[in-house]
Amino acid sequence: MSNLQDLTDRLKYQARLIGFSKVGIAPAQSGMESQRLREWLDQGHHGDMAWMANPHRQDVQSLMVGVKSIVSVALNYYTPHAQSNDPDRGKISRYGWGKDYHKVMGKMLKQLCRWLEQQGDQVQTRFCVDTAPISDKAWAQRSGIGWIGKHSNVITKEYGSWVFLGEILTNLELIYDSPHPDRCGKCRLCIDACPTQAIVSPYVVSAPKCIAYHTIESRQPDIPPEISSKMQNWVAGCDICQEVCPYNRRPVHTTIADFHPYPHNLHPRLTDLAQMTETQWDQQFRSSALRRIKPQFWRRNAQAVISAHSPT
Length: 312
What we know:
By secondary structure, the protein is an alpha+beta fold. The chain contains eleven helices and ten strands. A hairpin with a 5-residue loop joins β5 (147-148) and β6.
């Protein structure tokens, strides 16, 4: 036990040394999250996101032979910039302002994997940062990093919900953390603030009603009028439910320079986005997670906002 505790302590120290904001560990055993996911899928809340139904997402053992532990990490991405209230400017979710978090966290997770593999001849690892069908929010809660709020984002006491999540799967047995308790209480600020009522019940977000889903994931040629009329200038994601969360009232600024905004991702002109060319898109989003949104959908999103402002 003492050797396991020593390895666990050194692993957590190394994770923080690399730059992760939080780290926790849970046994690689499926729990209630699998049932909740099935219920969410059965109710059609995933919309067109067919990959959410990947059966591997409900069985972490299928992602790596011999996995025994899940090491969850969180990385604070909050930067001290505000959204614009100018009706001619679009709003982009904070997560996409700077460099692609997949690249930033992937590099850090790879470094932690290499360290872990050096601790024994038979150590195996696999890291994930939105790169495998794994329920990262559930594992973050089970490993003690934070809890899943009523808006379905993970909330940490130290950094609020402004965190990226990642995991390392390993065949090592480690000392496990206790699951984080839910601290939302009776609060329903996020539920009441959502302009499209996408939080259909506490902890349940229905993608077809969500602004973030329609501006990022949806590949439909048009945004439904019941959504476009309430977009409030969001053209890539939506942070409304996070902005009203009490745990985000005193945000801690990130130490990761790569997460500070690219100038063109703050307060973009809607008219520029509505006319974006393939070349402009390629140049503007070359190192950005926002590259997931293709040019025609940037134009669609911006035009939907512009139309909502236009007199009928």
